[in-house]
Amino acid sequence: MDVNFSFGRALSLALLALLLTSSAAILKPYDLLYENAVRSFTEGDYTNAVRYMEGALSSYAEVTSAQVRCRLRCQDQHPFDAPFRELQFFEVVLHRSACINTCIEEKIGTQSMHKVSEDVLQDFNRRIPYNYLQLAYQKLKQPEDAAAAAHTYFQANPEHVEMGQNLEQYKNQEGMLEEHFVDREARPHQRSFSAGVRLYDNGDYEGAIVMFEKALVEYYRADVKCRALCQGPQRFEGHDHLLYRYSLHELISDHFTQTLHCDHECVRDLATRPGRLSPMENYLPLHYDYLQFAYFHVDMLEEALQCAHTYLMFHQGEEFMTDNVKYYQEVLGTLGKPRE
């Protein structure tokens, strides 16, 4: 495990001490908490390692949530209403920026100005904090918490042989139950979809309908969140704006191009299970495919027709679904239409 960090020890300790004595309404920067967690771990202070690391994870989740809420709120308050002139465009951009900055500072305090390094962001994306937590909880003889941390880390890092071995040891310990092995970062939409597939395969079509409908609600909610996070700062690969001079419009174009690329990647990201490099094929349309068959099995043909139409919005003209649509239309005597 790599525990070497390039943070300024004295500066981070001073900042952390200041933040710890500040108002409880001010959220502590998660990278400083993370650094102190790692330092406590290397010094054998596992109690503080857990305290700081759990705090870092909580802070990270709150920051992300605040960013989503504020960007969506300010987007609604300051929309791009077409048609508009160039000056109106910049006026909306400035108002939206000021709105977001004010909103985030109200929710998480002055750390809205705090810049987290790319390395720390990558560690959180790769669930590295749970690797430390698993080992710290193990040292503190808290096997249930250790098992949950190990399972959470392993879901995103299935190639980690040592963690896989640790999980097997936890499973063999007396008193350990299946519910102790939870993914603390589980994606609700993927969990509901998997549950729907299991129920469908077992012939419980009513139960499957409930789970697939729930999965769709959670999927679109996750999609909105993902796209909101795309509105943040973008990385311009191969573009060093300190060395090259760009016009204002070129900079704006670069930014929105990166934002659109990020939006597009949300589709792949939401369909990709932890630890996998590739997304599940045909992920979102499959919800409607399963639903139309499940509704057919419980004799809810109007709903089945609606889901079949919706599936064809993704795969226009696909033969098997087109045949299903014709069947439902003949039985019902109506053309039907896709979901809005």
Write a structural description:
The protein is an all-alpha fold. The chain contains 14 helices and no strands. Helix 13 packs antiparallel against helix 14 (319-332). The protein starts with 8 loop residues before the first helix and ends in an 8-residue tail after the last helix. Mean pLDDT is 86; it is low at 1-24.
Oligomer: single chain
Shape: flat
* Chain-averaged pLDDT: 86
Order of helices and strands: HHHHHHHHHHHHHH
Helix content: 55-70%
List the helices and strands and how they pair.
Blueprint lengths: L8 H12 L9 H13 L3 H32 L8 H23 L9 H8 L2 H12 L3 H14 L4 H12 L15 H14 L3 H25 L18 H23 L12 H15 L3 H14 L4 H14 L8
In short:
By secondary structure, the chain is mostly helical.
Summarize this structure as a short list of keywords or feature phrases:
0% strand, 340 residues, disordered N terminus, flat
